[in-house]
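I hope you will forgive my troubling you with a question about protein structure. Could you please explain, in whatever detail you think fit, how the structure tokens follow from the sequence? Thank you for your consideration; the sequence and its tokens are set out here.
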Amino acid sequence: MKPGLQLRFSQHLALTPQLQQSIRLLQLSTLELHQEVEQMLEQNPFLEVAEEAPSAFDAPPERAGASERQADEAWEGGGAEAGAAAEPEPAPVDAAEFGTTEREDWENGTEREDFDGIRETPAKAAASDGDELDPMERSSVGLSLQEHLHEQLRGMRLSPTDRAAVMVLIESLDEDGYLADALEEIAERLADGDAEQAEELLDRLRCALKWLQNLDPPGVGARDLSECLQIQLRAGPRCEAQMIAILICKNHLELLARRDAKKLMALTGADEELLKAAQALIVRCEPKPGRPFTRAEANIIVPDVIVQKSGRGFKVVLNPDVMPKLRINDLYAQAIKQQRGARTEAGNGLSARLQEARWFMKNILQRFDTIQRVSQAIVERQKGFFTHGAIAMKPLVLREIADELGLHESTISRVTTAKYMATPYGTYELKYFFGSSLATEAGGNASSTAVRALIKQLVGAEDGKRPLSDSQLSQMLEEQGIQVARRTVAKYREALKIAPANLRRSL
């Protein structure tokens, strides 16, 4: 057999480290991005924070071409990488191989109080003395629930043994202010298997629990919701409604959650007016006494983009507060220039770190540019929302934005995940503006987001004594030309955290 030559062509996609970094930065949230920046500042000596000097981040990349070219000139190593070919610019992240798009249900409901007769938001306290520190102020200064209780404990005249018992219970509280473990279990752990000592400790812990439950905030140290509400109710002024409220919390919380007024009146002996007064007292209680001491800073959402009115339309601007202000250290960059042509191991290492810093800054620029482009495309498609609210939302899928911008669906999915937009109606995740379509009698389509907003509107306007069922809501939507099945209405209602009709009925 004679030897021969064969020519074969193959195609493969290689993900360079720079491209991998671009993909990773694109899907990071704002908090994660800042953590990544802090880590890079620690690792790379060429990067530093631009405190006063203007940065390339002050304008989108495509509109700041001149400034970027000037930055490139400043970053040039001047022969530090002599003999090496110039590296290409980072490619746009739009290839299908970079990840598959997960088909998620973009359900995004609005927080609402639970219909169990007890609010999920902290109860507003009455006007307190001027010298008393507000719970939210305590949280702002970083005071935890345990620290707050320990401060009160230091002002109490207790024996060392009783004080130690109360401290044990304080450390056993969960973040909501409830006693996580049973007193018997705590006593057994402290006694280490000694039954006689465990019994003695149990008596001390019971006494310590009474001390603990008299501390601020009211309801702390309770073992369940019923006990928590009873403690708070007993601390209030005595009246007939208070006694009925305590009785309900002790024995009939389930009936209160079901809004079964007839059974409650029969079991408590109260009339309708007295029952409503008792319910009002219960609603004012705080079901989670430790809530004011939780770190609220972690729940704050900072928008990545801001929508502004511009003539008859709207424009999207990047939030400068979330954009890292970075620059190349001039001292180190000049040192690289002075070593032009030197091919030492140390010089090559420094050149690589300089190039790494350049790529990192360019990838961050590209990240914010992509976010702005996608956000602007969303605003153009959802002009009705910014003019009339959620009811005017149009159906929108990832594919439409991807085709318009020439990107892949996976890129749009990454951009819209954990990125937020400040609008005249509040701050929303970018995924909020995407929704499936529902058929209408006119032959058009209605957005699922608009349907949810309409359901919320209908429920808000209903008669409290005759709440609308899912079937009635479906019928009312059909009368407005929107064809929605009862099961779909139930799904949207649950996404909005709206209770069923029987739990929304007023007492």
